[in-house]
Design brief:
Layout lengths: L1 H4 L3 E10 L5 H8 L3 E2 L2 E12 L2 H11 L3 E3 L5 H8 L12 H8 L4 E4 L12 H4 L2 H20 L7 E6 L9 H13 L3 E2 L6 E3 H5 L6 E8 L19 H4 L1
Parallel strand pairs: 1-3, 1-5, 3-4, 5-6
Antiparallel strand pairs: 2-3, 6-9, 7-9, 8-9
Amino acid sequence: MNAFRHATAEVVIRHGHMACGLGAGAAGMNAANPRVGPLRGRFECAGGIDVDEGAIRNFERLTGVKGTVMDLFSEAQYRAFHGEAPPPGWREATPRDVRGVFGRLDILFASYPCKGFSGLLSARAAETAKYQALNDLTTRGMMLSLEAYRDDPVAIVAFENVPRIASSRGARFLAKIDALYRAYGYVVSDVEDSIHDCGTIGGLAQSRKRFLRLFRHPSKVPNFIYQPAKKRLRGVGEVI
């Protein structure tokens, strides 16, 4: 009876990463050890997609999982951003390509380029075709992943970006994204809860605020997703 009471059942949680960068987010998920009663979650990385070959090499080192170099631009976006036609052999990515990389997924983490909303970029520059194409890369990447899993929606999608995306400059952009996910049956997290300090979430020696929007599919996750308890910021000397 005691052995049964203390038995632990393992649940594998597969996570994939769009615009994965060097893979710090994926490595963090792999290191997680969630437990709820007799259930233990084991995070398993399904891969990452990025256009930067160097980033993918680092992703593979950090996660131990194969990454995929893939350009998510449409041809029109490529021309607008680079100012020239794509090279020979280039083609637009498809939903099938995305699903082929990840296979079954429970969580999709997306950290698309944020230069269009950076405080280092003037409002005038942000309105140019080049940076509008970079912003549109976000919605194209989202459409690719939504269509890739239309018949089996990913339970939770996490969209990470700079805090300024929630300012007046990004208001219409975010409204478009929220409407897109609602159209595919997702519930959007509260706008007021979208700015987080990674330092107080992870108990780090750095205050780093980021925008994080969660989309959950109620067919997979009917319950509300709670925020983690805040921790104190640590001193640099404490960490060293």
